[in-house]
Amino acid sequence: DQQVKQNSPSLSVQEGRISILNCDYTNSMFDYFLWYKKYPAEGPTFLISISSIKDKNEDGRFTVFLNKSAKHLSLHIVPSQPGDSAVYFCAASVWTGTASKLTFGTGTRLQVTL
Amino acid sequence: DAGVTQSPTHLIKTRGQQVTLRCSPKSGHDTVSWYQQALGQGPQFIFQYYEEEERQRGNFPDRFSGHQFPNYSSELNVNALLLGDSALYLCASSFLQGTSYNEQFFGPGTRLTVL
Q: Residue A105: which pLDDT band, with cuts at 50, 70 and 90?
């Protein structure tokens, strides 16, 4: 049961353009949504998050949009830079009563070309 | 601040053997979570430890067990290894505050190969 889905395994964008990464979820109990970035041989690095009570959160070049009715979130990177090339994971958090549990999507590999 | 550290970096075992992976949390953190990341997949939650107790468990068999020590460091043990246990094992630490999301910081992982 894949509760968090990233349907695009890869995305290629030109430097300076906008990158849009998408994520869908099924569990309406998720209360936080996060994006992580992962380089090879490193652990995931937190990028940006959004609470389920908000619809937008912005941090520099990164903006996350949440559409609760569609159970969809997206990450916008503007402008895209070559250093943004990595695998991006969407994750969702739920408080189980005893712990905060993260559920990850399968990732989207972003390549930013010159 | 050393961040989250994990050891060893790589490990090769054969089917049926047992393995222990280790994690030291980021300074000031009291909660450790373990994840399994198979090739081409996202990390999957194994379990979370707080106050030396397992607080939440994902959909993993009892062959997967853990421990948290008084200094908050943690171990993940896997018994009777299967070929399908080959994966990157990630440890994440956080500071438990309230009943909502607490930011998790990940270590670099341990790459386990089962032959």
A: very high
Q: Does the pLDDT of residue B93 top 70, yes or no?
A: yes
Contact B85, B68 (CB under 8 A): no
Q: Which of B94, B101, B105, B110 to mutate to test the interface with A (most CBs of A within 10 A)?
A: B101
* pLDDT value, residue B1: 66
Please indicate whether, in this complex, the C-beta atoms of A89 and B42 are within 8 angstroms of each other: yes
* pLDDT at residue B99, as a whole number: 65
Find the helix or strand (DSSP H, E) in which B87 lies: strand B87-94
CA-CA distance, B78 to A83, in Å (whole number)? 36
Mean pLDDT of A48-57: 95
Burial annotation B62-86 (CB, 10 A radius, 16+ → b, else e): eebbbebeeebbbbbebeebeeebb
Selected from 3.40.50.1820, 3.30.160.20, 2.60.40.10, 3.20.20.140, the CATH number assigned to the domain covering B5-114 reads 2.60.40.10
Residues in chain A with CB shorter than 8 Å from the CB of B43 are 44, 89, 102, 104
Check whether A99 has a pLDDT greater than 90. no
Residue of A nearest to B47 (CA): A101
pLDDT at residue A5, as a whole number: 96
Cross-strand bridge partners of residue A74: A22, A65
Contact B50 A93 (CB under 8 A): no
